[in-house]
Design goal:
The complex is a heterodimer of chains A (459) and B (337).
Chain A (H helix, E strand, L loop, with lengths): L5 H12 L7 H17 L4 H16 L1 H5 L3 H17 L14 E7 L5 H14 L4 E6 L6 H12 L3 E2 L7 H14 L4 E6 L7 H14 L3 E7 L6 H12 L3 E5 L8 H10 L3 E5 L7 E3 L2 H9 L4 H11 L2 H12 L5 H13 L3 H7 L3 H7 L4 H12 L3 H5 L6 H11 L3 H34 L19
Parallel strand pairs in A: 1-4, 1-5, 2-3, 2-4, 5-6, 6-7
Antiparallel strand pairs in A: 7-8
Helix pairs in contact in A: 1-2, 1-5, 2-3, 3-5, 5-12, 6-7, 8-9, 10-11, 18-20, 20-21
Chain B lengths: L2 H10 L3 H10 L1 H17 L5 H13 L4 H18 L4 H16 L17 E6 L6 H14 L4 E4 L8 H12 L2 E3 L7 H15 L3 E4 L9 H17 L6 E7 L5 H13 L3 E5 L8 H10 L3 E5 L7 E3 L2 H8 L1 H16 L1
Parallel strand pairs in B: 1-4, 1-5, 2-3, 2-4, 5-6, 6-7
Antiparallel strand pairs in B: 7-8
Helix pairs in contact in B: 2-13, 3-4, 3-6, 4-5, 5-12, 7-8, 9-10, 11-12
Classes of the chains: A alpha/beta (459), B alpha/beta (337).
Chain lengths: 459, 337
């Protein structure tokens, strides 16, 4: 998509005005227009945008921006702060009833992902040693009950169903009885998708609520929803008094401005975000990170978290030690590359880096290219991997044949590898020198460790 | 004859019932878009920057894509300068005409499906999760069945829990066979089997379901591309239609969807679903304008016969029903005088 990140848009707006000397209120206005467009492009509702802009402008026209040397940066900072404030500060938790079972109702439009989210939520609760009961109250959509049953089977959670001839109200009542008898502490009611303007079906939900007395009513919202998200959320909230929101399909490439709209009009926290097709892909929602995503500023925090999960620290340390001694082999290269791949598809990772969203459009990350490099390395003998100098012409020819690539490709990769090795040596040389100086008692540079963040050499 | 009267005349010849459905289904879009434009035009006597800004906002609120809106506004600015328009009221017809032009297809028959009698017609359905692919297939199977066609369904969604069962229920309701494998099977293999079955049974139309997938999942898009290739290989000239099913509530992301699915599966048309409840429909204009993919069908309700061929004139009529009525009243008045 041709989405420009807000950051670069703002920069552009100020660049245009640079030649004019002083940056004044007109410049701020111009910048606000860019902010407005960026938010609208991210599907934030225009009413929400309007109020938001008014607030940011008030702060921006104040002294802090006009006096700042980098007004663009300053405005971005203010926007980010305000956005985070609007999204709500902390990570919200799911309710626990004083007397079990805790009843949770899932509501929303058709196709928002209620049934799948119900399954994911059950899995999430199981991880916390809870015993959830899934209740199939969607009696309208063909095979909706079956879908919940399949999900229940996959996560080994009981599913309560009375077929599609019994009213959802009765299903809910009996389900709660069933949960009490069987000592299940969470009851997750999966309701049928409905339009917020469908009087009859909304009345049915109200009746279910009367009977079930839920501790949580979660509105399931598709993150790709456009301007209409506000109407949907507002009307569900008015008629049912929601307690929270689940945002689904966030693993797509949408900016997810709907999140902001929903939060702004209902005031209810977004409790969970669904980030993938697998059943454990339901995560607690982090408001601050969403703010960055809407702005197109990347999600560095999530990236770091992912890295911590995926990277084997022991291995990394060992590699660091070896590299300090100026050693860098193909095996090490392969290891580090695999660790990077553990983080997930490269494209996802790049998307989390600030400013990368803009590049993503033009730059197609070629996972195959990585596969090819891997094949080349794997076609080498152990001796060759440990000692690159062995690689003469005939060996290269064999490697090309073995990996299904051409000699040119093998040559290019080996060249890149050599370059990388040289660079490493320079790095280690530098750090060593600094260390020697430190020993002599001159310079003190705490925290100056070997910069272990090299990247594979292809773009 | 004014533009609107022409449009009205074109509509009159079409069936009342369908027009009613469009008008009902699009009430919200109309209220949102048209009434706001009217209100705006009345409030602003003179055309200035604020006027354009507010107009921009109205269009964006209807989910008409940001890029398209900018283009439109620029064109309007040009018109205002060229024709020296000062009164906002004079700008209104120009705006309406431009919107209609955006929606109208260059070729008249571009909205109808490319189906031919006497051969196997293959229609592939693609889209992100939860847009209503399976439901659309059910409705469409019903439609073709009504027309006396021999229809076969292929349960190509082997991923989502109970998706196959969902299609089977539709098959039973409509009275059509469903070719299926078990959950987790290779969708391309299911489609392959369905194609063979369709050939040997002498089927007129084969409707292929696929699993919903987000367009940024490279692997899943590759899988879809494989399905597409299998269809291409097995039946020359197929798939005759690849329909992208799009949820009308979707915002700007719909553009990205249309683009990516277009690349992987050669989308030939769009089915816009869930148009009955919500304010949108504007994204159609953006997609039409930026990607040149025509909308072929719209889902206007929950019942089996609520899938209607998309008719730009009907759509515009529904969008501008208020305006047309007003103009008709005015003309009548003038004639009386």
């Amino acid at each position: 998509m041709a989405f420009e990140s807000l950051a670069s848009r703002l920069q552009g707006a100020f660049d245009k005005l640079r030649g004019r000397g002083k940056i004044d209120e007109t410049a701020v206005n111009e910048a606000m227009r860019e902010v407005r467009l960026a938010l609208l492009e991210a599907d934030v509702n225009f009413k929400v945008v309007k109020e938001f802009i008014a607030r940011v402008k008030e702060r921006a026209v104040g002294q802090e921006v006009l006096k700042s040397l980098t007004p663009g940066q300053m405005v971005i900072k203010i926007v980010n702060e305000e956005l985070t404030a609007l999204m709500g500060g902390d990570v919200a938790k799911i309710a626990v009833a004083n007397r079990p079972p805790t009843v949770v109702m899932m509501v929303g439009l058709q196709g928002a992902g209620k049934t799948t989210s119900t399954g994911k939520l059950a899995k999430h609760l199981q991880k916390q040693n809870r015993k959830p009961l899934l209740v199939a109250a969607d009696i309208y959509r063909p095979a909706a009950i079956k879908q919940l049953q399949v999900l229940g089977e996959q996560i080994k959670a009981p599913v309560f169903s009375l077929g599609d001839q019994v009213s959802p109200v009765e299903i809910a009542r009996q389900a709660i009885e069933h949960a009490k008898e069987n000592h299940l502490d969470y009851v997750l009611i999966d309701t049928a998708g409905r339009l917020h303007i469908d009087e009859a079906l909304m009345e049915e939900l109200r009746q279910v609520r009367e009977v079930a007395k839920p501790d949580e009513i979660l509105l399931v919202v598709d993150a790709m929803t456009g301007q209409d998200a506000v109407n949907v959320a507002e009307s569900f909230n008015q008629q049912l008094e929601l307690t929270g929101v689940v945002l689904t399909k966030l693993d797509g490439d949408t900016r997810g401005g709907a999140a902001l709209s929903v939060k702004a009009v209902t005031g209810k926290p977004i409790k969970f975000a669904a980030m993938g097709e697998k059943l454990d892909a339901l995560e607690p929602f982090h408001p601050d990170r969403m703010a960055s995503r809407i702005l197109g500023m990347g999600d560095v925090l999530s990236l770091i978290e992912k890295a911590q999960e995926a990277v084997d620290t022991e291995k990394a340390k060992q590699m660091e030690r070896q590299m300090r001694q100026g050693e860098f082999t193909f095996d090490m290269f392969l290891d580090s590359m695999q660790q990077m791949r553990n983080l997930g598809p490269l494209e996802d990772i790049l998307g989390m880096l600030p400013g990368m969203n803009k590049l993503k459009g033009n730059m197609k990350v070629d996972e195959k290219q990585i596969g090819r490099v891997e094949a080349i390395v794997k076609s080498m003998t152990k001796a060759e991997r440990a000692n690159p100098d062995l690689l003469n012409a005939s060996r290269r020819k064999r490697i090309a044949a073995g990996s299904g690539t051409s000699i040119q490709e093998v040559n290019r990769f080996i060249k890149q590898f050599e370059d990388m090795k040289k660079m490493m040596k320079q790095f280690t040389g530098m750090t060593d020198k600094i260390k020697k100086k430190q020993k002599k008692g001159g310079l003190k540079m705490p925290g100056m460790n070997f910069p272990f963040n090299f990247k594979p050499p292809f773009k | 004859m004014s533009f609107f009267s022409k449009l009205r005349e074109a509509i009159v010849q079409k069936s009342e019932a369908v027009t009613q459905k469009f008008t009902d289904g699009l009430t919200k879009t109309r209220n949102l878009l048209v009434e706001k434009v009217e209100d705006l035009v009345r409030r602003y006597k003179k055309i200035d920057e604020d006027f354009f800004e507010e107009l921009e906002e109205i269009l964006i609120t209807a989910d008409v894509g940001v890029g398209t809106v900018m283009e439109l506004i620029d064109e309007l600015r040009g018109e205002v300068r060229r024709q020296k328009i000062e009164n906002a009221l004079d700008l209104q017809p120009i705006l309406s005409e431009k919107l209609v032009a955006l929606l109208k297809n260059e070729e008249a028959d571009a909205t109808s499906l490319q189906l031919e009698d006497g051969r196997l017609n293959v229609i592939l359905f693609v889209g992100v999760n939860g847009v209503g692919k399976t439901t659309t297939i059910g409705k469409m199977a019903h439609m073709f069945k009504q027309q006396g066609k021999k229809v076969l369904l292929a349960a190509g969604d082997t991923f989502r829990a109970a998706a196959i069962e969902q299609l089977e229920v539709w098959g039973e309701r409509v009275g059509v066979d469903v070719i299926k494998h078990q959950q987790g099977a290779d969708p391309a293999a299911v489609i392959y089997d369905a194609l063979q079955a369709a050939k040997s049974r002498g089927v007129d139309i084969l409707l292929c379901d696929t699993a919903g997938r987000l367009q940024n999942k490279v692997n899943l898009m590759e899988e879809l591309n494989k399905v597409y290739r299998v269809v291409q290989r097995e039946v020359p000239g197929a798939p005759h239609e690849v329909l992208l099913v799009l949820d009308a509530t979707t915002g700007q992301n719909a553009l990205s969807q249309a683009k990516t699915f277009g690349q992987s599966a050669g989308v030939t048309g769009i089915v816009l679903t869930k148009l009955d409840g919500t304010a949108k429909g504007g994204i159609v204009i953006a997609i039409r304008n930026e990607l040149k993919i025509p909308v072929k069908y719209v889902g206007l309700g929950e019942r089996m016969d609520d899938l209607q061929p998309f008719d730009p004139e009907q759509f515009v009529h529904a969008l501008f029903a208020g305006l047309i009525a007003e103009e008709a009243a005015e003309t009548a008045k003038q004639q009386q005088e």
